[in-house]
Design goal:
This protein is an alpha/beta fold and about 775 residues long. The chain contains 22 helices and 27 strands. The strands form 5 sheets. Strands 5-4-12-6-7-11-8-10-9-13-14 form an 11-stranded mixed beta sheet, with helices on both faces.
């Protein structure tokens, strides 16, 4: 992004001649001139002179023949032979230079809400097709004025070939409408002032941003936030917030130095930050969790809005329930008209909706929980060239999909849960769109083993593709290996809610000896019965009864747990669908093994423990109960519950939590505070996973542990486990660039399939060599 112009500027300033062009491998630069000038060029290219968004992965130099009579440095048309690497880059937050211009009364883009340059602005969200040129973006309808065109064509200008360049005279405009779409104000500045006034008065305003609409409301006004929850039918999931300075965020949350860096980064994600104990944020913004999600303004429009003395806004995705983010004006009016009191709209069309990304910190490092705006479509690079393009379909929850092409793994943005019909439709369209955008001609498709996954069914329905099924937890571990470019076997610990196992059981706490080539199951959580299959991931009573039955065996009597049902009932009213009033029915299922499966799911154990402690009985959104359980942990507790690791003949290592479950019941009956019980439970799981890793090390001599799976989105558990592993001499790899939850599955699938294809082509090449040798003799 802006790389060739930067090369041009440095070369010219040093009096070097030659050329620069993009090709299939990256950027090629030919330089002619004095040797020390060339050295200086190389130094400056890798220093602050390079464009802020450029990330030089590697730089190789080689001598070329002198060209007589060459007297200038030029940018050459890109070499389009072969398939180029991805040309489309991510959407980037407004840069400091643009902000300064926007604040300068003398600049012709003073207070212009669509100011951008080569270092910032929309990209991925406005591209319709490649090559990435203005006519192929949603900016094609705006003809550049002379002033903008002059900058666009001037190679020394910061806006050289900045495709979305625009100004008040020639570019998009902002206006404000009421909830029915009736215009309130068509003057850009007045529309923004009026919108800010409505927000200050507690109204809900739908604001069109970079990747879609946000629903905004004053985050300090509890009544207003509750109204938004009610209208959006989103009763529980925490809302993200936006403001315009780190200082303001510090009033409400703890911002470490590294968190500040991430907040201010060009990607500008939502960052999860520890709540300050006394914060004026409305309680209903983020109940039941220990963190606030904050982001800084990232579009010029946001800054102009906050300049109207707004303090902090809830900025939640403009959609209904879990449907795809809305990005078109008409659809927004149609679907959000019942939620928003007003719409702050504009006419720069968004071609691809992209949600805000979410980052949190594990072991003091930034880790992506949701990978979307700002990060997509930045590829993950592989060591080896993949001979054939690969499509990886991903998983059904928190879906992303991924293309492997040459040395790149290009992962889609967060798509959502495919069980929603609208999301599934969006998934199909997105795979088609991105296939074209990245010119991926997949001959191979990688998919999950779960036959009922919609992503699996879609993958298998694609004609003429070679299908490669990849076990869910292996894909989790492979996602870590891929992003760390780690190609030797590791001890993989994958913990999550559900993943289809090779034995037909539902796996969810697995110790694998894994590489990109193969995996072997070394150990797992001892299977316990889980009644009610589909409902079990939402209704905590199901894993709870399954675990109690497992822990107490034939001693288990419903009547002994009357007190527990009483406790569960207090939270049941929120969810009329739950069958807590009739645990007998579920116990019957368990006893007759009807609609009951065996599982090693660790996620469901967290659900059950949360329910036992009275934190709720239903996951209204994924991992709600585990997050509530993490949020109440009391600091400074080192105790943990007992567990057993059992190795029976002919069986894998089993982690048995029966003692843990019984221990928790005893502590509840002793009225030990829930925060201490939760800490003891988390500590016990960390200790158990450490012991498992040690046993795996003993028998394999491997010393690297890779952690992945949704359970490792739990900061307390993951931080504690990493510390324990490090203390014991392990080196630990965990997801950073892709989510540890199922959002990372597609990358793991693609990496495994790419490795498989490369290996296969190598074997074929060897055979061919052998054949030709025989032929010669
Ligand atoms: Zn800029
Ligand atoms: Zn203009």
């Amino acid at each position: 992004m802006g790389f060739r112009p930067a090369v041009y500027r440095i070369a010219r300033s040093l009096g070097l001649t030659g050329l620069v062009y993009n090709d299939t491998k990256g950027v090629t630069i030919e330089l002619q001139g004095e040797e020390e000038k060339i050295d200086e060029f190389l130094a400056r290219l890798q220093s602050s002179d390079k464009p802020p968004l450029a990330d030089i992965k590697s730089c190789r130099t080689t001598g070329v023949a002198i060209i007589e009579g060459e007297n200038e440095f030029v940018i050459k048309i890109s070499d389009r032979r072969g398939t180029p690497l991805s040309q489309v880059t991510a959407d980037i937050a407004t840069c400091q230079d643009c902000l300064a211009e926007m604040a300068n009364k003398k600049d012709f883009r003073y207070q212009y809400p669509f100011i951008n340059c080569t270092n910032c602005g929309p990209r991925y969200s406005i591209v319709k097709t490649i090559p990435y040129d203005r006519p192929n973006t949603t900016m094609s309808v705006f003809a550049m004025c002379d002033k903008c065109a002059a900058q666009y064509n001037d190679v020394t200008d910061r806006r050289f070939h900045a495709q979305p360049v625009a100004c008040p005279a020639c570019g998009p405009k902002v206006w404000l409408t009421d909830s029915k779409g009736k215009t309130i104000n068509t003057q850009t500045d007045e529309a923004i002032t009026q919108a800010a006034k409505l927000l200050s008065a507690g109204k809900i305003v739908a604001i069109k941003g970079v990747g879609g609409f946000h629903l905004a409301v004053d985050a300090l006004n509890n009544g207003a936030v509750e109204r938004l929850r009610k209208r959006k039918r989103r009763d529980h999931k925490p809302f993200a917030m936006m403001t315009d300075s780190i200082e303001k965020i510090r009033e409400y949350a703890v911002v470490s130095e590294s968190a500040e860096q991430v907040l201010k980064s060009p990607q500008s994600p939502i960052v999860l930050l520890p709540k300050k104990e006394i914060a004026a944020i409305a309680p209903s913004v983020a109940a039941g969790v220990n963190a606030f999600g904050f982001m800084l303004c990232y579009a010029p429009l946001h800054y102009l809005l906050f300049a109207q003395r707004l303090k902090v806004l809830v900025m939640t995705s403009g959609n209904i329930a879990d449907e795809p983010l809305i990005c078109k004006n008409e659809i927004a009016l149609e679907q959000l008209g019942g939620i928003a009191d007003a719409f702050l709209m504009h006419n720069r069309d968004i071609y691809r909706q992209v949600d805000d990304s979410i980052v949190h910190f594990i072991d003091e490092e930034p880790v992506l929980l949701r990978r979307a705006r700002g990060y997509v479509p930045t590829p993950i690079f592989m060591e080896e060239n993949c001979r054939q393009d690969i499509f990886a379909a991903g998983a059904d929850l928190k879906n992303t999909f991924c293309f492997a092409k040459q040395i790149q793994l290009i992962c889609s943005e967060h798509i959502g849960d495919l069980e929603d019909a609208e999301v599934y439709h969006h998934y199909i369209n997105s795979t088609e769109h991105l296939r074209k955008l990245f010119e991926a001609e997949s001959k191979v498709v990688a998919h999950d083993l779960h036959p009922a996954y919609l992503s699996t069914q879609y993958a298998l329905s694609l004609p003429d593709l070679r299908a490669i099924g990849v076990q869910h937890h292996w894909a989790h571990i492979a996602s870590v290996l891929a992003e760390h470019d780690h190609d030797s076997p590791v001890i993989g610990i994958a913990c999550d809610g559900t993943g289809y196992g090779t034995d037909g059981a539902i796996w969810g706490c697995e110790c694998l000896i894994a590489s990109l080539e193969s995996f072997e199951r070394f150990g797992h959580l001892a299977y316990y019965p889980l009644p009610g299959a589909d409902k079990a991931s939402k209704e905590a009573i199901r894993p709870l009864l399954g675990l109690l039955k497992f822990a107490y065996g034939s001693d288990f009597k419903l009547s002994k747990f009357e007190w527990l049902w009483e406790r569960l009932k207090t939270s049941v009213d929120e969810n009329p669908k739950s069958e807590i009033r009739n645990p007998k029915f579920i116990v019957e299922q368990l006893e007759k093994h009807i609609n009951t499966i065996d599982t090693s799911s660790l996620g469901r154990v967290f659900d059950a423990v949360a329910a036992m402690l009275g934190l709720g009985s239903y996951n209204h959104f994924e991992a709600q109960l585990p997050m509530a359980l993490e949020a109440i942990i009391e600091d400074g507790i080192e105790d943990c519950y007992d567990f057993e690791l059992i190795r029976e003949a002919d069986k894998l290592l089993q982690l048995d939590l029966r003692k843990t479950i019984k221990g928790i019941i005893t502590d509840i009956q002793k009225e030990l505070p829930a925060g201490i019980i939760s800490a003891k439970f988390h500590n016990g799981i960390a200790a158990a996973l450490l012991t498992m890793a040690k046993q795996a090390r003993e028998s394999t001599k491997l010393n690297t542990v890779a952690l992945s799976g949704g359970v490792f989105c739990n900061r307390y558990l993951t931080n504690r486990l990493i510390k324990l592993l490090n203390k014991d001499g392990f080196s630990v790899l965990f997801n950073r660039d892709v989510p540890a939850n199922d959002g990372g599955i597609s990358v793991g699938q693609a990496a495994i399939a790419a490795h498989f294809m490369t290996r296969e082509s190598r074997i074929v090449a060897k055979r061919r060599k052998l054949c030709s040798a025989q032929h010669l003799s």
